[in-house]
């Protein structure tokens, strides 16, 4: 088993300080072995560090890194005559050496780029059936119940912000009615 010193790791990953190496080792929770006054790590740790390096090159961060685990499949045999030596791959789709299996670009999902709120909103938009008069029904309900809507809420319903002291859109009149937080409040009435 090959041992890698901290200096070798620093050179391998082109890091400026030993502390950067230790930061990465702490992030992957690697065991640093000591031999006298020299620290080193094993090949398994270097494989995980290589995955981390690839993840960082693709724009990820140490916090978003999740190492992949290597697995070995041992075929079970039902037949008395079958041995691991005479098992063969009979189809191209049985191959495991696909670029999709090993390329970290396909393994890592770009979810860290989305906030939870925007992800949920996108899912809701896809799932929610569209009703072309839905926004008018909501405005009718707001007028009936005397709701005061913010400029943002009106913009979400109609696709545009109200302007001026009074604003008419379709069968509804929007009258400026104070403030709600940092936004203008609008009373909705039917014309």
Structural features, described:
The protein has helices at 6-12, 18-27, 43-57, 99-102, 104-107, 116-127, 134-145, 151-158, and strands at residues 4-5, 33-35, 38-41, 148-150, 166-169, 172-180, 183-190. It has 191 residues and is α+β, with helices and mostly antiparallel strands. Strands 4-7-6-5 form a 4-stranded antiparallel beta sheet. A 3-stranded antiparallel beta sheet has the order 1-3-2. Helix 1 packs across helix 2. The longest helix is centred in the first third of the chain and has 15 residues, at 43-57. It starts with a strand and ends with a strand.
Helices and strands in order:
Elements: E1 4-5, H1 6-12, H2 18-27, E2 33-35, E3 38-41, H3 43-57, H4 99-102, H5 104-107, H6 116-127, H7 134-145, E4 148-150, H8 151-158, E5 166-169, E6 172-180, E7 183-190
Antiparallel strand pairs: 1-3, 2-3, 4-7, 5-6, 6-7
Helix pairs in contact: 1-2
